[in-house]
Amino acid sequence: MDDLLADFIEETREMLEAIGSEIVAWEANPADRARLDSIFRFVHTVKGNCGFFDFPRLEKLSHAAEDTLADVRNDRREADSQPFWQSLTEYLT
Considering the domain 2-92 in this protein, what is its CATH number? Predict the structure, then answer.
Protein backbone atom coordinates (compact mmCIF):
# COMPACT_ATOMS: atom_id res chain seq x y z
CA MET A 1 0.00 0.00 0.00
CA ASP A 2 2.88 2.38 0.68
CA ASP A 3 3.99 2.08 -2.95
CA LEU A 4 0.48 2.86 -4.16
CA LEU A 5 0.27 5.87 -1.88
CA ALA A 6 3.66 7.13 -3.04
CA ASP A 7 2.51 6.75 -6.66
CA PHE A 8 -0.72 8.61 -5.89
CA ILE A 9 1.17 11.50 -4.31
CA GLU A 10 3.69 11.71 -7.13
CA GLU A 11 1.09 11.50 -9.89
CA THR A 12 -1.18 14.03 -8.19
CA ARG A 13 1.69 16.49 -7.83
CA GLU A 14 2.60 16.08 -11.49
CA MET A 15 -1.02 16.51 -12.58
CA LEU A 16 -1.44 19.53 -10.32
CA GLU A 17 1.61 21.21 -11.83
CA ALA A 18 0.30 20.55 -15.32
CA ILE A 19 -3.26 21.63 -14.54
CA GLY A 20 -2.11 24.91 -12.98
CA SER A 21 -1.50 26.49 -16.37
CA GLU A 22 -4.85 25.17 -17.57
CA ILE A 23 -6.60 26.88 -14.67
CA VAL A 24 -4.86 30.19 -15.38
CA ALA A 25 -5.73 29.94 -19.08
CA TRP A 26 -9.34 29.01 -18.33
CA GLU A 27 -9.61 31.92 -15.92
CA ALA A 28 -8.58 34.22 -18.78
CA ASN A 29 -11.12 32.59 -21.12
CA PRO A 30 -13.99 30.96 -19.18
CA ALA A 31 -15.70 30.00 -22.45
CA ASP A 32 -12.90 27.52 -23.25
CA ARG A 33 -14.79 24.24 -22.80
CA ALA A 34 -11.77 22.04 -23.53
CA ARG A 35 -9.86 23.56 -20.62
CA LEU A 36 -12.86 23.27 -18.33
CA ASP A 37 -13.20 19.60 -19.26
CA SER A 38 -9.50 19.02 -18.60
CA ILE A 39 -9.73 20.62 -15.15
CA PHE A 40 -12.88 18.64 -14.38
CA ARG A 41 -11.19 15.34 -15.32
CA PHE A 42 -8.26 16.15 -13.03
CA VAL A 43 -10.54 16.90 -10.08
CA HIS A 44 -12.63 13.80 -10.82
CA THR A 45 -9.50 11.62 -10.83
CA VAL A 46 -8.28 13.07 -7.55
CA LYS A 47 -11.70 12.53 -5.98
CA GLY A 48 -11.77 8.89 -7.01
CA ASN A 49 -8.25 8.27 -5.76
CA CYS A 50 -9.06 9.90 -2.43
CA GLY A 51 -11.97 7.53 -2.01
CA PHE A 52 -9.72 4.57 -2.75
CA PHE A 53 -7.12 5.69 -0.21
CA ASP A 54 -9.76 6.75 2.33
CA PHE A 55 -8.84 10.44 2.55
CA PRO A 56 -12.28 11.75 3.53
CA ARG A 57 -11.34 15.42 3.95
CA LEU A 58 -9.56 15.64 0.60
CA GLU A 59 -12.32 13.59 -1.00
CA LYS A 60 -14.92 16.04 0.32
CA LEU A 61 -12.93 19.00 -1.01
CA SER A 62 -12.41 17.42 -4.42
CA HIS A 63 -16.09 16.43 -4.54
CA ALA A 64 -17.06 20.05 -3.86
CA ALA A 65 -14.71 21.21 -6.62
CA GLU A 66 -16.15 18.62 -9.00
CA ASP A 67 -19.72 19.71 -8.18
CA THR A 68 -18.84 23.36 -8.77
CA LEU A 69 -17.17 22.59 -12.08
CA ALA A 70 -20.10 20.36 -13.07
CA ASP A 71 -22.44 23.28 -12.47
CA VAL A 72 -20.39 25.36 -14.89
CA ARG A 73 -20.24 22.53 -17.43
CA ASN A 74 -24.02 22.10 -17.25
CA ASP A 75 -24.77 25.83 -17.51
CA ARG A 76 -26.20 26.02 -13.99
CA ARG A 77 -23.75 28.80 -13.20
CA GLU A 78 -21.30 31.03 -14.98
CA ALA A 79 -17.60 30.48 -14.51
CA ASP A 80 -17.05 34.00 -13.30
CA SER A 81 -20.27 34.59 -11.37
CA GLN A 82 -18.54 34.24 -7.99
CA PRO A 83 -15.13 33.26 -6.71
CA PHE A 84 -14.42 29.54 -7.02
CA TRP A 85 -13.41 29.22 -3.37
CA GLN A 86 -16.68 30.79 -2.28
CA SER A 87 -18.49 28.09 -4.24
CA LEU A 88 -16.44 25.37 -2.58
CA THR A 89 -17.29 26.80 0.81
CA GLU A 90 -20.98 26.57 -0.04
CA TYR A 91 -20.66 22.88 -0.92
CA LEU A 92 -18.59 22.12 2.17
CA THR A 93 -21.00 23.67 4.66
Answer: 1.20.120.160
Q: How far apart, in whole angstroms, are the C-alpha atoms of residue 1 and residue 53?
A: 9
The pLDDT tens digits of the residues spanning 7-35 come to: 989 988 898 888 888 888 888 898 999 99
Query: Cα–Cα distance between 29 and 82 in angstroms, integer?
Result: 15
Q: Is the separation of the CB atoms in 39 and 23 below 8 Å?
A: yes
Using CA of residue 77, residue 75, residue 22, residue 38, what is the dihedral sign?
A: positive
Nearest to 14 by CA among 6, 24, 3: 6
Q: Are 43 and 63 in contact (CB under 8 A)?
A: no
Its pTM stands at 0.80
Task: Write down the domain spans for the chain.
Answer: 2-92
